[in-house]
């Protein structure tokens, strides 16, 4: 019987585990991937907004986190795929056959990028699909590219790519870009970034790698093809809640509902970090929520480190 099982080893889960360990709780972290860090692996830009630390990217911040993780005394299983979970009984069964029992659960499963579900999207992964403007800009230098989405991430990536690509076409289904003004204002006529609003990409095409996208503009016009060698999709994220969504209260977008103690509507089941729909989905928010959940659990179990 564990005191706490934490599901997910991104910044939120790692912080919770660190705090649980400090408070003397018997803690097990289950991470389905074969490495810890969550979205930190996708942060290729410098991180300058985590108080007290500036790093070149997410990997470097993870290295710093890992020093504390390695020195701590909690159990951490990577490659731990959960087969089923009963939140009320607080029982977890792993695909590898283990059955685990715990007094409390902390859900720290984060989010994943939303996909379009259009032909070509999966097929051209690694063959013209751009994962990050910052990381991949040199690979696509001199090529025409398309960015799908209209929020901060889409426009910021478009601007990074525009530094090295002859043309960048942003395709956004809304009436105007949603990106903050500082980004949207930099997309000006005459600039090499063209924006198609009220438009969707319906197909990504090519032979062995991306050669074109098919764009459908609102108003019934016929779809047309645009020749590009790279496509970057930034249309938001979705919470990783499929495993337990039916067992607790979630909002209309599937994010777990929590109170100010990070507790869900199921007693002794907590949710922290991006999966709990924070107003600011950030590393500092995730690590702070981890501390809150650990402190609440320790107090309930009468442990104070
Ligand atoms: C490109 C990019 C740039 C960013 N830049 C910044 C920045 O500059 N500053 C900042 O503060 N934030 C930034 N963020 C946001 C920040 O990375 C997230 O807010 C933070 O990683 C959230 O941490 P988390 O632990 O809640 O979730 P995640 O980091 O998503 O981690 C969740 C973990 O749970 C695991 N998991 C999921 N489902 C299961 C399951 N069923 N069983 C077991 N494990 C599971 C996942 O594999 C993952 O390891 C950025 C994000 C991106 C993508």
Provide a descriptive summary of the structure in words.
The protein is elongated. The protein is 21% helix and 29% strand. It is built from six helices and 19 strands. Helix 1 (11-22) packs parallel to helix 2 (58-71) and helix 1 (11-22) runs parallel beside helix 6 (283-300). Helix 1 (11-22) links the parallel strand 1 and strand 2 (27-31). The two termini are 19 Å apart. The chain is an alpha/beta fold. Strands 1, 2, 5, 6, 7, 8 and 19 form a seven-stranded mixed β-sheet that branches. The chain has helices at residues 11-22, 58-71, 133-136, 152-162, 181-184, 283-300; strands at 2-7, 27-31, 47-50, 53-55, 75-78, 82-86, 91-94, 99-107, 111-113, 129-130, 145-148, 168-171, 193-196, 199-206, 210-217, 224-227, 230-233, 237-239, 269-271. The chain binds flavin-adenine dinucleotide.
Could you state the order of secondary-structure elements as H and E?
EHEEEHEEEEEEHEHEHEEEEEEEH
Largest sheet: 7 strands, mixed
Which structural class matches the secondary elements? Answer: alpha/beta
Please tally the helical runs, counting DSSP H or I stretches of 4 or more residues: 6
Number of strands: 19
Which helices and strands occur, and which strands form pairs?
Blueprint: E1 2-7, H1 11-22, E2 27-31, E3 47-50, E4 53-55, H2 58-71, E5 75-78, E6 82-86, E7 91-94, E8 99-107, E9 111-113, E10 129-130, H3 133-136, E11 145-148, H4 152-162, E12 168-171, H5 181-184, E13 193-196, E14 199-206, E15 210-217, E16 224-227, E17 230-233, E18 237-239, E19 269-271, H6 283-300
Parallel strand pairs: 1-2, 1-8, 2-5, 8-19, 10-17, 11-12, 11-17, 12-13
Antiparallel strand pairs: 3-4, 6-7, 7-8, 9-18, 14-15, 15-16
The chain binds flavin-adenine dinucleotide (FAD).
């Amino acid at each position: 019987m564990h005191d706490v099982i934490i599901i997910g080893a991104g910044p939120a889960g790692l912080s919770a585990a660190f705090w649980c360990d400090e408070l003397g709780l018997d803690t097990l972290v289950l991470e389905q991937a074969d490495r810890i860090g969550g979205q930190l692996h996708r942060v290729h830009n410098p991180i300058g907004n985590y108080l007290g630390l500036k790093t070149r990217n997410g990997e470097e911040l993870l290295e710093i986190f890992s020093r504390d993780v390695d020195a701590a005394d909690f159990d951490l299983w990577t490659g731990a795929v959960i087969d089923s979970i009963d939140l009320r009984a607080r029982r977890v069964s792993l695909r590898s056959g283990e059955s685990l029992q715990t007094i409390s659960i902390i859900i720290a499963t984060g989010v994943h990028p939303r996909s379009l579900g259009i032909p070509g999207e999966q097929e051209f992964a690694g063959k013209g699909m751009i994962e990050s403007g910052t990381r991949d800009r040199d690979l696509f230098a001199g090529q025409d590219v398309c960015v799908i989405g209209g929020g901060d991430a889409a426009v910021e990536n478009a601007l990074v790519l525009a530094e090295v690509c002859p043309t960048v076409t942003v395709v956004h289904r809304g009436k105007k870009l949603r990106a903050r003004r500082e980004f949207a204002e930099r997309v000006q006529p005459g600039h090499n970034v063209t924006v198609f609003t009220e438009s969707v990409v319906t197909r990504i095409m090519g032979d062995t790698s991306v050669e074109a996208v098919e764009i459908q503009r609102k108003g019934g016009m016929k779809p047309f093809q645009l020749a590009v060698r790279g496509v970057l999709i930034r249309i938001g994220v979705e919470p990783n809640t499929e495993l337990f969504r039916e067992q607790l209260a979630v909002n209309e977008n599937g994010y777990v509902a929590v109170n100010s103690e990070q507790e869900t509507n199921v007693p002794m089941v907590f949710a922290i970090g991006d999966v709990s729909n924070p107003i600011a989905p950030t590393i500092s928010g995730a690590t702070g929520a981890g501390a809150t959940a650990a402190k609440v659990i320790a107090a309930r179990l009468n442990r104070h480190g």
